[in-house]
Amino acid sequence: MPLRPPIPVQPIALPPVHARPSLLIADDDPVVRAVLSAQLEPDFRLVGPASDADEAIMLAGEHQPDAALIDVDMPGGGAPRAVPRILAGSPSTRLVVLSGDERPEVLDDLYEAGAVGFIQKGFTGFEIAQTLMAALHGAPALTCPGTLRTDRLVAAAAL
After folding, report:
1. Is a pLDDT exceeding 70 seen at residue 27?
2. CATH architecture under which domain 22-157 falls
3. Cα separation values, 7 from 1, 3, 10, 11, Å
4. What is the DSSP code (8-state) at residue 2?
5. What is the pLDDT of residue 143?
6. What is the CA radius of gyration of the chain?
7. Based on the number of CB atoms within 10 Å of its own CB, is 40 exposed (0-12), middle (13-18) or buried (19 or more)?
8. pLDDT per residue over 91-116, tens digit each?
9. Domain locations in the chain?
10. b/e per residue, 2-37, with b = 16+ CB within 10 A?
11. CB 102: neighbour CB atoms within 10 A?
């Protein structure tokens, strides 16, 4: 019986197993920044914490992180100002909003500006890491179901 010719296989470029996605954390509360950094550092390569919108914009432009966790309310305009400016300087960064404010109108505006996820303050580091990983892989990244219109979330995640 004749042998079949081998099926051509396209090589796939896989990241090294040890590679961790880079993450920018932006929150004006130093305790929140420290806790988030400690909780997320095992899963992410932290590129620097930011304490306000201006610092977040600058660090994102400098480091081009894979993801950014941005507080809604912080000096310099918070996430409403930072999200579109970060995307202008670092278009591949997946932006996830961190907040205790779940008002749909605030979050809808942030999704329109380019955020792809939302994390409500108070979730565990494991849950935050899972939400960030979902955002990095293009899945809806939401930790408080029912507060947003899911059509916006799914559309943002598909970008």
Report:
1. yes
2. 3-Layer(aba) Sandwich (3.40)
3. 18, 12, 10, 12
4. P
5. 59
6. 18
7. buried
8. 999 999 988 766 677 778 888 889 98
9. 22-157
10. eeeeeeeeeeeeeeeeeeebbbbbbbbeeebbeebb
11. 14
